[in-house]
Amino acid sequence: MLGDFWSELFGSVGSLLNSLARNRDREFVFMDGGAASPGPDEMGTATPQSTTPSAPPMWVQARSQLESLQKADPAFAEATFLTQAAKAYAAALAAEGAMGADTLAAVATPAFVAALAQRIQQWRDGGYTRVVSDVHLDAPTVFKVTIGGQTQAITVRFTGSAKRFTREDMTNLITEGSAQAQSFTEFATFSRPAGSTTPDQTTNGADAHCPSCGAPTQNGSLTCAYCGASLSGTGGTWLLDHTSVSAYT
User: 151: part of which helix (H) or strand (E)?
Assistant: First the structure.
């Protein structure tokens, strides 16, 4: 009887060790969510998994989109556009700090001017002062281009540093932002009517002048503001339309 007992015990231990060894030799690949991927099939071959090719980065797509824009508008120059975009964006920051949106009429869309004016009025009504100072901008980059639909749009990524905060007038306490210079990234979208083209005289980076009277002209203007003469290009100035901390909004 005792011999039978030890025989059964050794047999049970041997079965347990064999089972553990088999479990140890199994391989599992874990996917997102903790679920195991399909294992080998009954013939011992791995089950194929489908893969979806990822889209190119947005900045890569922007280069291709810029090429399409330049085909439709041969006089468009990226460097000139970015220079003007940086001036418009800097003007918007200055207008925010001065709490006056009217100065942006020449560089921003009516919708942008109205939205900033409403925000400024809310600050005033609440007894707050908006402060924007010590602005330092890095070189901007084109991040997204859209040329379909009723408007053309270019989203530009701006990085830099600035003191940008809201202060309560009564207590002098900062309620939003920081009085210390902070690094930032912001995306500004500029738009113009679909089908617009750039006047030829602006492609060399020099100041544009009316070919009839010689007066300075605003980039994208359809006619001279001084003599009314027609200018090259179809017109349509790139105007600041909105800003966001995300390129997708």
Answer: strand 151-168
